[in-house]
């Protein structure tokens, strides 16, 4: 399921102890996964998926939202709250501002007054919707809570989208129908799998226990590393191979199929 893939990828990424190299890397990752998730969805009864969203502006505004939250200084008591979900709203809305949809399939319901749609000349989002979730998050030990709340807020937001399809349609006429321009309004966008995924026993898939980082901790000192092993100092610009032993902040990790830059590390076994 599409939101399920988004959750799985983000939770794996955030579970990586050294993979989230920078604030900018996280913004890029969140934007990329959101964009890919939206491409797996569709617009309700018209069945068309998004063709191009404003990913560049979304990434910029995600960076702004993160910077705003990092700049907040609050006392430890009472527990400080973060407006991160609220602040991500403008970034998600920016993605949909002027977004273009695929011109296929042809809408099954004819444009008003017509009897059949022939072709779609343009399909755009004309209203980026409303971000209604405004509450703040308490500090948590697991990234699961943040991801689940973001998916909830983003799913609610998708309901508020509005768009317009410009068509060439056939209109009734004697002795035969004639083509003419048509307009179809649409609202809402569907991405399946927003709820928790359950296994055969009813357990939630993708919980903290299920997320295992590609960087497996193997010790806190060089004494824990076999003498024949060559260790590498972690760098966000380095490329690592499966089996590499990487040192970061005095801790040692075994790399399991990480991709370049430590930004996109998937849990693929040896």
Structure characteristics:
alpha+beta, four-stranded mixed β-sheet, three-stranded antiparallel β-sheet, disordered C terminus
Fraction of helical residues? 25-40%
Low-confidence stretches: 197-203, 205-212, 257-270
Strands of the largest sheet, in order across it? 8-11-10-9
Number of domains: 2
Given the structure, what is the number of helices? Answer: 5
Ends: how far apart?
A: 26 Å
Order of helices and strands: HHEHHEEHEEEEEEEE
Percentage of β-strand residues: 15-25%
How large, in whole angstroms, is the Cα Rg?
Answer: 23 Å
**Per the principal axes of the C-alpha atoms, what is the gross shape?**
elongated
Largest sheet: 4 strands, mixed
Mean pLDDT: 81
Helix/strand/pairing class, anyone? alpha+beta
**Number of DSSP strand runs:** 11
